[in-house]
Structure formats: C-alpha cells, structure tokens
Amino acid sequence: MSATVTKKMVIFDIDGTLLRSDKNVSLSTLEALTRLREQGHTLFLATGRSLFYTKPVIDLLGFENYILCNGAIGFINHLQKFSNELASEDLTSLLDRFSELEIDAVLVTLDRLHRVSSFDLAKMKNAMSYVGGDLPPIRKINQSKEQIYQVLAFYDQTADKDIASRFADFDFVRWHEHGVDILPAEGSKAATISAFAGQLAFEKKDIISFGDGLNDREMLQAADVGVAMGNASAEVKGCADLVTDTNDNDGIFKALRRLALI
C-alpha cells in the first residue's frame, strides 16, 4: 500500500524563478508543475507583477491561484479574494515628492498601468524590460475613484533612504537597480500567502515557496521550506531553508526532487 502524500501549498515567484533569464520556461519546470498537480498539491504564483503582466504566465502555465503586486491583490480559482490598495491622500503626497525630485512613477490598478511622468524614459524602459514589459503610456487617473494597488518608481539606491524615511505608511521593495515597488505598509507576498493558507486550511508546515528577489525574503521565511534560486543574492539565500540551482539550470525541478515531491 503506497504512502499518502501530504498535500502542499507550493508558491512560485515568476521572474528569476519560474522563468529563465530569456523569459522562457524550461521543460523541467513544466514537468515539475505537471507532477505537482497530478499529486493534488495547490500551486500559487506570487509576483510583484500586475495582472496585466502576469496574465501571459497564468495562461501559459495554467495557474488558477495568484498573488500580484507583491501581495496587494490575491486570486483563488481566478476570483479576487484579497485587496489592499494605497490610500489616496498618502499617494498624492508621494507623487508630489517624486515630481520635486524628477522621479518617474507608474500607478498600478487591477489590469492597467498608468505612467504619470517622463523625466527619464531610458531608465524606465531599462527597468520595465526586466519584467518583460514595455514603457506604459501616460494616462490620467482619478486617484480618489480608482483602486491603486502599487506604484512602480524609477530611481537608484542613492534616493532610497530619503524617500523611505518620509513615507512610513508605505513599504519600499527594490526589484531592479532602477526600479522600486511601493505598497501599503505591512503588505507583502508573505502576508497574503498567510491569509490564503488560513482560508484553504494549510498550516505553515505545508507551505513551500520559491523565490530569488528581495521581495521574496518574507515569503521564504514564512514557509516551512523556503527555497532560494541559485541566482539569488546572498541576502536572499540567507533567508532560505534550501538553496537550489539557478533558474537557467533546472533549479525548481532539482529542489522538488530533493524534497521528494516529484
């Protein structure tokens, strides 16, 4: 009689994790996802991307559950079950400061990106290309009526301390040398994962997460097994329970084999 497999909640970051450096998916990763589903495990995406930029990956890999904008939006079975938007008044103050400093920003609603400035198009294009996106067009938006879940800001590390110290109601998560995600304080992939785990009756011992970026640190620590990709920084690897091979060298497949899940 075969042993019963304990069902797991397995969470994957996208860029640098599920996707190779060329933004394609390896055959070994496709096989790993198929085997996990065949065994009845529950799979989630957890990404800093908006729905607009995540939709191609959702469709390609057949994900039904996904956490977007670093935890600000969450879906189970394609139904939105979690929302944590930015406060309009605080956002206005932030954007005013960005204008003073000539820092470009993009506002993220559920399914669109709204660029608000054009101070340094080259810097924005460089950062957006990392997530496979183009430069969003400038769009006017009514901040008091639209639900804004995240801001993408484009500045280097020299401005980090000044900006973060002025806006304690926001969390600032760097994902690129020129790109920072801004979300409500206390919001994170880990917080939304925890909320969904409770809804789906998963305990911490049943959670496995994969990531490579600074915005993955909390979710690696919140899981029973946090797996850092081999291409992650030393800081991210230090938050993990297991370090696997790189996203370009079958890292997900190798880790799942090591954990005896496939």
From TrEMBL:
InterPro entries, alphabetically?
Cof (IPR000150), HAD-like_sf (IPR036412), HAD-SF_hydro_IIB (IPR006379), HAD_sf (IPR023214)
Q: Which UniProt keywords apply?
A: Hydrolase
Which NCBIfam families does the entry link to?
A: Cof-subfamily, HAD-SF-IIB
The protein, known as? HAD family hydrolase
Record-level Gene Ontology MF annotations: magnesium ion binding; phosphatase activity
> PROSITE patterns recorded for this chain?
COF_2
Q: Which organism is it from?
A: Enterococcus raffinosus
Q: Does the keyword Hydrolase apply?
A: yes
GO CC terms: cytosol
Spell out the PANTHER family in the cross-references: PHOSPHATASE YKRA-RELATED, PHOSPHOSERINE PHOSPHATASE
